[in-house]
């Protein structure tokens, strides 16, 4: 029985409900009146439930599909404006006891070098990341209770926050590690993490079992119920995601939204972010071995429909996607991207060896190239980390986001953090382009008091001051 309020994965991700939703979507793919009614509801910015969203995803009426895309773009602008938040992944260890078939770090792969960063290595990696200009990291580590115990992750977080190189600082550490206990989530909260991210990979229980033949991650319920334990452990912001390309995308889409509805029903706060990775090639991993591959067009439709269904949830794409694909989904709803990423352990300080990557990167440009490309497209690259440092997390953040008021913080913070980047790290071309963009954007800050404050702070940043936020 489908029950969003239940704490049991079998009930909040109910297989029968998802199958019925898929049938509902198919049955109404050409139902102009219903699609129109759902679009009307979505225009009120209240979001959609998974069945309504399914109808939009399956919609096969060309002019209404155009409306879906243009509504997604409008919602993206209303809630997030033109700022795009930047982050980088940091791989701590590729030791792993699990057997995930889509990941080269699975324990039986003997081809790759196994590495775990020491605290000294972390200092080198983070210094290299700071010298690129990054302020926000996503920590990644395989699951290995002996080699990568929670104490190691906690020490790594403490080390990262303590590193200050020139004007650099990592101001927000998000964490993507294996499902754990309420007590351990409490320790992560105490360590000052931003968002706890855990990808479901696939919500289909049978496929999940096939793809995770052994290891703690093979326990579907333990994994799927992790976000509840995280929130009971005091973590306010959690990030969902599925690995598109493993199972049938329609199933994943409906289930992902069921999971978001569940978090809202139980905790009063939906997911802080949703990530939309697709399977990529890696050592021993061939995307064509999996049955659920999706085209760029389908990928764009998924992004647009998520944007419409959960307007208050940030959306993330990584360098798994090509420049062209990222360009398209940025305007449809993505609010956060990685740039200049290395997906191997130790890859920022040392030259990467191909077979140690968790996946092949499709966008290999440097951070500076990504920044100037974003600005050419009219986006404001942002290194903002203000919310969690100002205590705007969980329901406090959601209330601001749902009311659209968060934009009053995002836009000025984007300008101030971009300015820091330009002064400290940009190449001359990027610097020139960025200063011109800031001059233009400062004029559209609606509140005159805020505009004059930000103008002052921008001058102070030129003079050497750092870390202003609203
Ligand atoms: S996806 Fe994560 S848990 Fe699975 S093998 Fe890779 S590192 Fe280990
Ligand atoms: S103000 Fe908050 S929501 Fe906006 S970019 Fe900064 S951290 Fe993100």
Tell me what the structure shows:
- This protein is of the alpha/beta class and 470 residues long.
- The chain has 3 domains: 9-76, no CATH class; 80-364, Aldolase class I (TIM Barrel); 401-462, no CATH class.
- Helices cover 48% and strands 9% of the residues.
- Strands 1, 2, 3, 4, 5, 6, 7, 8 and 9 form a 9-stranded parallel sheet that branches.
- The model has no long low-confidence stretch (mean pLDDT 96).
- The chain binds iron/sulfur cluster (2 copies).
- The site of one iron/sulfur cluster has 10 residues, from helix 16 and helix 18.
Report the biggest beta sheet as strand number plus sense, adding barrel if it closes.
9 strands, parallel
The share of residues in extended strands comes to 5-15%
Query: And the CATH topology of the largest domain?
Result: TIM Barrel
Q: Tell me, briefly, the overall form.
A: globular
For CATH, the homologous superfamily of the largest domain is named as: Aldolase class I
**CATH classification class of the largest domain:** Alpha Beta
Bound molecules: iron/sulfur cluster
N-to-C CA distance: 45 Å
N to C succession of SSEs: HHHHHEHEHEHEHHHEHEHEHEHEHHHHH
Corresponding CATH architecture of the largest domain: Alpha-Beta Barrel
- What's the overall average pLDDT, rounded? 96
Q: Over all CA atoms, what is the radius of gyration?
A: 21 Å
List how many beta strands DSSP finds: 9
Note the total helix count.
20
Q: Can you give the helix content as a percent range?
A: 40-55%
Total domain units: 3
Class by helix and strand content? alpha/beta
**Poorly predicted spans:** none
């Amino acid at each position: 029985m489908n029950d969003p309020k239940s704490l049991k994965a079998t009930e909040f991700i109910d297989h029968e409900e998802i199958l019925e939703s898929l049938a509902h979507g198919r049955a109404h793919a050409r139902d102009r009146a219903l699609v129109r009614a759902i679009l009307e509801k979505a225009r009120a910015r209240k979001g959609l439930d998974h069945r309504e969203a399914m109808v939009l995803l399956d919609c096969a009426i060309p002019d209404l599909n155009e409306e879906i895309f243009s509504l997604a773009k409008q919602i993206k602008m209303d809630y997030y404006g033109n700022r795009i938040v930047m982050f980088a992944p940091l791989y701590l260890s590729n030791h792993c006891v699990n057997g995930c078939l889509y990941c080269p770090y699975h324990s039986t792969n003997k081809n790759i070098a196994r590495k775990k960063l020491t605290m000294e290595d972390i200092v080198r990696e983070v210094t290299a990341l700071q010298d690129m200009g990054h302020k926000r990291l996503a920590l990644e580590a395989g699951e290995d209770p002996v080699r990568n115990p929670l104490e190691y992750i906690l020490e790594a977080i403490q080390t990262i926050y303590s590193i200050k190189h020139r004007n650099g600082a990592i101001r927000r550490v998000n964490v993507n590690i294996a499902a754990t206990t309420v007590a351990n989530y409490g320790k992560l909260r105490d360590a000052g993490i931003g968002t706890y991210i855990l990808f479901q990979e696939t919500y289909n229980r049978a496929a999940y079992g096939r793809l995770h033949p052994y290891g703690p991650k093979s326990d579907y319920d333990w994994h799927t119920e992790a976000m509840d334990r995280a929130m009971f452990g005091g973590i306010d912001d959690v990030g969902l995601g599925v690995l598109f390309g493993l199972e049938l995308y329609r199933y994943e889409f409906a289930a992902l939204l069921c999971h978001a509805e569940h978090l809202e029903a139980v905790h009063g706060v939906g997911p802080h972010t949703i990530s939309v990775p697709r399977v990529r090639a890696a050592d021993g991993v061939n995307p064509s071995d999996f049955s659920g591959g999706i085209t760029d067009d389908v990928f764009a439709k998924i992004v647009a429909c998520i944007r419409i269904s959960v307007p208050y949830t940030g959306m993330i794409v990584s360098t798994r996607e090509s420049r062209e694909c990222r360009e398209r989904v940025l305007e449809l709803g993505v609010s956060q991207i990685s740039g200049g990423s290395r997906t191997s352990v130790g890859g920022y300080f040392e030259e990467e060896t191909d077979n140690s990557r968790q996946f092949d990167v499709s966008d290999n440009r440097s951070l500076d190239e990504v920044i100037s490309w974003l600005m050419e497209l009219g986006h404001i690259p942002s290194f903002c980390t203000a919310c969690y440092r100002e205590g705007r997390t969980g329901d406090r953040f959601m209330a601001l986001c749902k009311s659209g008021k968060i934009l009053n913080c995002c836009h000025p913070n984007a300008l101030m953090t971009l300015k820091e980047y330009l002064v400290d790290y940009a190449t001359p071309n990027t610097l020139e382009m960025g200063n011109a963009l800031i001059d233009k954007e400062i004029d559209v800050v609606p509140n005159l008091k805020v505009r004059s404050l930000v103008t002052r702070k921008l001058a102070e940043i030129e003079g050497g001051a750092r870390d202003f936020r609203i």
